[in-house]
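Justification of computing resources. Each target in the renewal requires a structure prediction run like the one illustrated here; the chain below, 99 residues long, is used simply to show the kind of job we budget for.
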Amino acid sequence: MHIELVIAKLITVGLGLLITYQAYQGYRVHGSEPMLYVAIGFVFISVGAVIEGILFDVVGLSIFLAGTIQTAIVSMGMLVILYSLYGRMPRTTNGEGNP
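Resulting structure tokens:
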């Protein structure tokens, strides 16, 4: 196992989880539903960053299957983040009945 790759993967997961935490805090403090979806999306992306190596080295899957699973997980995270940007979210009114 290459220690440099493991360190790089741990940094990537750490950054992803930090972004997840901050987005979740934004959801909790401000009630912003899109921030909840950003947090969920980054959980998927963070897990996807390391799952390929785990599936290949630890579980013993082929590199093709491990890579396919990793790509699917990261893609799901990106779709959730995309939903946070373009999905239908409840609108608030400006006091005059107009959104």
